[in-house]
Amino acid sequence: MDLFDALANDPALHLKMRLAPGDMQFVYNHTNLHDRTGFTDWPDPEQRRHLLRLWLSLPDDRTLPPVFDERYGSVEVGNRGGIVVEGACLVAPLLP
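Now predict its structure.
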């Protein structure tokens, strides 16, 4: 585990990117080890970012172990709902 931790934190193995307005990023969570730095939004509502997250579930996706069921709501291939946070309103507004 120490070697894994060292490799995961090795800057030579990192890919850093900064997303700009209009950019899209596709990450396959079950094959890529990824992380993100903290984000502090602008205090002015007119400058705040407008981020939409879409969870795709492929019909021929890989099988997940049952331990993921609690987090995703389902581990059934093609029917994973993503992480739903209690109290979250599931909408995708076109305007911020």
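The chain has two helices and no strands.
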